[in-house]
Amino acid sequence: MAERTDQPLVLGFETSCDETGIGLVRGHTLLSDALATSMAEHERFGGVVPEIASRAHLEAMVPTVHRALADAGVALPDVDAVAVTSGPGLTGALLVGVAAAKAYALALGVPLYGVNHLAAHVAVDELEHGRLAEPSIAMLVSGGHSSILLVPDLSQDVVELGRTVDDAAGEAFDKVARVLDLPFPGGPPIDRAAQEGTASIAFPRGLTGPRDPAYDFSFSGLKTAVARWVEAQQRDGVHVSVPDVAASFQEAVVDVLTAKAVRACRDHGVDHLVIGGGVAANSRLRAVAQERCDAAGIVLRVPSRRLCTDNGAMVAALGSRLVMAGVAPSEPDLGADSSLPIDVVSR
Ligand code: KG4
Ligand code: ZN
Questions:
Q1: Please, which residues have CB less than 5 A from ligand 2, an ion?
Q2: What is the pLDDT of residues 137-155, one digit of tens each?
Q3: Where along the chain is substrate bound (predicted)?
Q4: What is the pTM for the complete model shown?
Q5: Distance from the CA of 294 to the CA of which of 4, 46, 121, 347 falls in 20 to 30 A?
Q6: Is 143 in the pocket of ligand 1 (CB under 6 A)?
Q7: What's the pLDDT tens digit per position in 162-206?
Q8: Does ligand 1 have an atom closer than 6 angstroms to the CB of 188?
């Protein structure tokens, strides 16, 4: 593969869940990041409804592309390559993005890169902090996934060291928010509520025993423990302090995530950690990760909050990385793969 030294202009499409994200990136420079979301339409269902998300992507697609181009001050003929999330995610939602990206790539006569949503959550950090150290350990914590990765080279080589055996970290935030009557998605309101409370309740830390797998996570027992604790208090007529429960739950998640990520760095002799995905927006996770990395002599990189949750710039960022590394583009029959494995960076 021949490395490129010029800076390609890449148009990125993200439609794996409820956000229609269109981003423009030149090299490692973020030019624009336009977002439309159907979140409000899902709120009353307490989770994303795939059919509603797909239809909303269709309606938002062209206007959002136009907004991204206008914000970046570029025109379609300037685009050198198109990148699109081809998985993992909701099949119908992914298909809207893949079809749109193919149409733009074909019409413009530029290469198309189908990329992995999870690797894109890591790649986005390069827009703010420059090229990732090689190797890095990456912890990916989103609504659908929680994994610890060894990343020798983000353009082609990602090794999963561990993952959640049940709920994803973000899913646990969303489910606990429901128990506490907080809105969906649950991460932001729990983060806010926790700032008013104290982590005084000792909730369990899953898979942290001496014989447990070092880099796997389990959050389903924690979620159940929180629900049981709240029920018991209510049964006894005791007032439940939402801020204290939120802070205690959040502390349990953050403690486990950061301990395992630091351990992965130490065990593999890697001194750079990058955290990506929606849960990386969590203020307590960012603070504790910084403390523990400082103590362990690890350089921590976390994208700014806005770039942690789903967006189009992350897809363009990974696409740009692939173009510059000389990776072959996708075939024209690129499809959507709802369960694309984490180690397939592009296809
Ligand atoms: O990466 P993302 O936007 O979508 C997926 O790929 O899943 O992540 C969404 C998840 C949701 O579960 C949401 O509750 C969580 O990220 N999240 C947070 C915060 N902001 C978003 N979790 C904890 N604290 C936050 N501040
Ligand atoms: Zn995501």
A1: 142, 310
A2: 999 999 999 999 999 999 9
A3: 140-144, 174, 187, 191, 282
A4: 0.95
A5: 121
A6: yes
A7: 999 999 999 999 999 999 999 999 999 999 999 999 999 999 999
A8: yes
Residue with tokens 């710039």: 313
